[in-house]
């Protein structure tokens, strides 16, 4: 049996379909982040982008996300390794570092019998949080 594509290709060598399939749907990249002006440290909040369907952890308008959310960042081969705020389990981050996917990743666990990591249990939409309250929503 041949090795799966994520073990034989770099991120740059993947086609669009392979690239997209790496996303495990955790939703952590869609959490609103706050930056400490003094230290530059980035903090996740429990507040998600208004386009994130919190139940499925998928963007509700993926094709138009950049038009609807000006701050939405496109993950790319050029930026993924430098995005320290991505979770340690992020497939893009792992593959960029030459590591394998976690056993619960949908590409590894095709039966979906293992529990995946996601924001669905705690996140709330930015539609329901005033911007002045974001600092109260910082999570570890």
Plain-language structure description:
The structure is a single chain. With 140 residues, the chain is an alpha+beta fold. The protein has one domain. A three-stranded mixed beta sheet has the order 1-2-5, with no helix packed on it. The protein has a two-stranded antiparallel ribbon with strand order 3-4. The relative contact order is 0.23. The model has no long low-confidence stretch (mean pLDDT 93).
- Beta-strand residue percentage: 5-15%
Class from secondary-structure proportions: alpha+beta
Please tally the β strands and state the result.
5
What is the rounded distance between the termini? Answer: 41 Å
Question: Care to give the gist of this entry?
Answer:
By secondary structure, the chain is an alpha+beta fold.
Keywords:
4 helices; alpha+beta; three-stranded mixed sheet; two-stranded antiparallel sheet; 140 residues; 5 strands
Write the layout of secondary structure elements.
Blueprint: H1 5-8, H2 16-21, E1 31-35, E2 42-48, E3 52-53, E4 58-59, H3 65-68, H4 91-96, E5 124-125
Parallel strand pairs: 2-5
Antiparallel strand pairs: 1-2, 3-4
């Amino acid at each position: 049996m041949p090795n799966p594509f994520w073990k034989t290709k770099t991120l740059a060598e993947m086609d669009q379909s392979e690239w997209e399939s790496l996303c495990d749907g955790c939703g952590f990249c869609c959490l609103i982040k706050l930056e400490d002006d003094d230290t530059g440290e980035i903090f996740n909040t429990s507040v998600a982008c208004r386009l994130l369907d919190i139940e499925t952890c998928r963007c509700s308008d993926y094709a138009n996300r950049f038009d609807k959310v000006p701050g939405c960042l496109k993950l790319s081969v050029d930026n993924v390794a430098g995005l320290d705020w991505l979770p340690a389990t992020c497939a893009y981050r792992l593959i960029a570092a030459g590591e394998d996917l976690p056993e619960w990743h949908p590409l590894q666990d095709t039966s979906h019998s293992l529990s995946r990591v996601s924001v669905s249990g705690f996140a709330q939409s930015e539609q329901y949080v005033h911007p002045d309250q974001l600092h109260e929503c910082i999570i570890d």
